Amino acid sequence: xxxxxxxxxxxxxxxxxxxxxxxxxxxxxxxxxxxxxxxxxxxxxxxxxxxxxxxxxxxxxxxxxxxxxxxxxxxxxxxxxxxxxxxxxxxxxxxxxxxxxxxxxx
Length: 106
Prior knowledge:
Layout lengths: L6 E3 L10 E3 L6 H10 L4 E5 L7 E8 L5 E6 L11 E5 H7 E5 L5
Antiparallel strand pairs: 1-2, 3-4, 3-7, 4-5, 5-6
């Protein structure tokens, strides 16, 4: 659906409450996420391939090569090397976002 004002149902296994959202143009997804983070609001995010469980994006950074990534946290992997923290390339987020929750006023 390319109508960016229409409501859409989230087709994800974790959507037990049958939440709906609105389509966003692919080119604006990062803008919404970065704006929310700049206002100290974490973002709920999930991808279209379900490679990641739903993630709370809590920050943004760059690696030693200058590649930008989002810092995320989920409930799995607390005992791994990164203590449940995830480092997700912004390019992946832009290309594979299925659903993102940001503050309404953004």
